[in-house]
Amino acid sequence: MSTPSLPDWMVQARQQGLLPPEASLPVAERPWPVQLLTALGAWLALIPFVIFLALLLGRAWEHGVTAYVVGLLLLAAGVGLLRSESVGRFLEQLALPLLMLGLGSVGYALGRDLPSRLAPALGLLLCAALVLALPRHWLRLMLGVAGAWLCLLLVRGPHWIGGDLAPLWWSVYLTLGLWGLAQAWLHAQGLRAPGAAAAALLEPVLRGWVLGLLPVLAWLSGPTFMMSGGLGSGLARELHAAFGAHLWASGRMGPAAMSVLAAALGLAALPQAWPVLRQWRLLVPALLLLGLSFVLPALGACLLVLGLALVRSRRVLALGAAAVALWTLGSFYYQLALPLTDKALILVASGTVLGAWLWLTAERRPLRLGLAKPEGAARWSIPVCGLLCLGVVNGLIWQKERLIAQGRPVFVGLAPVDPRSLIQGDYMRVNYALPPLPPVAEIAGPWQERPRLEARLDARGVATEVRLLQAQEAPAAGTQLLMLSPVNGHWTLVSDAWYFQEGQEPRLRAAAFGEFRVMPDGRALLVGLADRDLRRLP
Questions:
Q1: In this structure, are residues 260 and 300 in contact, taking their beta carbons and an 8 Å threshold?
Q2: What pTM does this model have?
């Protein structure tokens, strides 16, 4: 009888005589926890080795051929350990850090001694040699990632940091084009027996190649929707300055055209693999994606990778490309070159056209809802709830208008803070010159008293000598009471943001005071921002 633990295909192979009767599944020599601990020991053993090399060579590593010699020796040792069949587990795990040290040493020497474009070219040749020499699939994938980044460095421009990213866009699409041609060649070779070995060798390299390009596309797209808000307004501004979409600043047409071409190729590849997609109903959605690819230059590259990955059944790669495509679509929110109204019109028009097209091309079927007429409490609950909502909303509006009309004008100084961050429209994040306040967690209960401030007002209504009151402490005579509110995990006066009309941000940079209307019990409302002369802005 066959062993129950054997898979069905092995049982059938033994019954048909393709495998000997005693054939069984290979048993791992060591369980994975032991292998993990062995790898950890190898990495820890490398630390004193690096210290020994640093003490032995000293500053000789920075000059001359020492870095080349040491790097090549480390690479040869790593390759030899990985190719050996009789080496122990510990030495096999030690091979990876040796390879990384060798690559780092040789890469440092090449970047030090050679021109900016010759160094990555030789780095590509070194990666190709390691791909041929190393038998491990995952190592070839990592070398593919490194090869993609080195290819980008070959055509880099001199003004990337200054915002001239047009050469980088061209290098991305050139690298992507090389990947697409290699994928086509790989597919053709895989269908022939003589080319199967070459296809198996290059498959992990090309997968790593495009996986290295996907984070570059996300970086070029800039921050996506709601990401900046989650990181904080100050950091959001810094991220947008570093990662903002630079396409509209220079070289717009070239990358946009390449994006549209890449999107067209990616969308055209899907019907070739799946004939069910050859429907005229999908024409308008495809055209909308092409239009968005013109506005978002990274979207076309993502669609090309997504299409080819789906055609070749590379699910992990397809999921990565889809994630970056969604990131790119979300980055449309932060393109400051387009006004918010224009972006809203583009999205509304796209959604309207797509919805109308789907409605026109959908199959018409009779719809029978069979809704029963409401009876009993259901007849009056809906209008009552509507009246209650209207009453609550209008009551809040009346309360704010009463506070504005009867409240005392109070001006509170603003502390230095980031002047702009985009989350919902344009707004200024404000911070007030207040004394140290307790954490919100210490006063979080709905029945606990909120912190209160006591402020003296000068002749102009500017709050001076602001002091935090203790619990149950009454404010001194002639002072103004200010009630604090919890906002975004900290205490502040009413709100930490002031929304403004798009395009007014330069004028609001002169803001020095927050203008409030305050009631005697400390309830306040932020009504505007003022400059040093207490003039309302904008």
A1: yes
A2: 0.60
